[in-house]
Amino acid sequence: MKQMSSDEILKSVNDYLAALPYDRQPQSLYAPVQYVLSLGGKRIRPVLMLLGYNLWKEHPEDILMPACGIETYHNYTLLHDDLMDNADMRRGHETVHRRWNANKAILSGDSMLVLAYQRMQQVPADKQPAVLDLFTVTALEIGEGQEYDMAFETRNDVTEDEYIEMIRLKTSVLLACALKTGAILADAPQADADRLYRLGEQVGLAFQLQDDLLDVYGDPKVFGKAIGGDITSNKKTYMLINAVSRANDAQRAELFRWIDAKSFDRQEKVAAVTRLYDEIGIRQLCEEKINFYFDQARQTLAEVNVPQERKQALAAYMDELLHRNK
After folding, report:
1. Phi, psi at residue 89, to the nearest 5°?
2. What pLDDT sits at residue 325?
3. Contacts of 142 (CB under 8 A, 6+ apart)
4. How far apart are CA 238 and CA 256, in angstroms?
5. Superfamily of domain 127-326
6. pLDDT tens for residues 30-51?
């Protein structure tokens, strides 16, 4: 059985997305949608959907439309997240509300969500209920995750368990949905489809924790944005939550001095908090947690009931994600 590599799949996803027509009017409503989808990105969700499908069936390009549906949905969430966060840049380009305005970001984002559903439903009729049920629950969960994330901004008592559940909802479930949808469309046994869902959750948790880590310890030239954004905004990340809970009294007092500071020198704050993270051992703690989830994911993939050689492309892609630096 012919397997496609993740690089081959990524190229086919990008080519397919670029060729999708936008022939409805007014064109001004759809221009931001095309703009957002043209900015690139890792395309992890559609790649995972096609890799999941390819475990059981050849020609993963047969499901490019729903794969692009899930990517459209992901980018819709980013468009609205950027508006809520008042972010200026995304992937090195102006965000939609900066390039156009807030009203355009809301309306084009809403249309993007509907387009995502339209693309997701273009699957065989007998698969539609299962695919759309999974996608709908996932979309609800992602909204719930975003609400938790915003609620955490005003709290200093967020626990590690609460944080892990928030990132499971906000990030992991969409990767899980992508893999399981690929399995459903490939007529995989229910038990294996469920295993792929769990694998997606585990990879998603590791992926988000990597983001937390890279925001503090990444190389800005490679990472693509300034280091320390989470620190300057007091974002409740795995790093900060564990630093607060594990610090001694003096370290905790210094952390809260920086958290409570209304005016500060950005570089000074990032350097001071990073030094505290180093003292408390937060980098190692986060790296261990990332490896824990990746090990779980490898174990889950091992349990999927297909020949080992069929799993190679997905296993290689997971390793690529583990060793990313941006």
Report:
1. -130, 150
2. 84
3. 77, 169, 170, 173, 174
4. 16
5. Farnesyl Diphosphate Synthase (1.10.600.10)
6. 999 999 999 999 999 999 999 9
| Segments of the chain scoring below 50 in pLDDT | none
CATH 1.10.3720.10 at 1-122, yes or no: no
**Dist. CA 23–CA 87, nearest whole Å:** 30
* CA angle at 268 for the pair 267 and 270, rounded to the nearest 5°: 65
Q: Do domains 1-122 and 127-326 have the same CATH topology?
A: yes
Contacts of 293 (CB under 8 A, 6+ apart): 202, 203, 205, 206, 209
What are the φ and ψ backbone dihedral angles of 192, each rounded to 5 degrees? -75, -35
Nearest to 11 by CA among 65, 36, 35, 47: 47
Decide: 51 and 91 in contact? Cβ < 8 Å: no
DSSP letters spanning 64-105 = HHHHHHHHHHHHHHHHHHHHHHT-SEETTEE-HHHHS-HHHH
3-class SS of residue 260: helix
Q: 94 has which bridge partners?
A: 89
Listed by start position, the domains of the chain span 1-122, 127-326
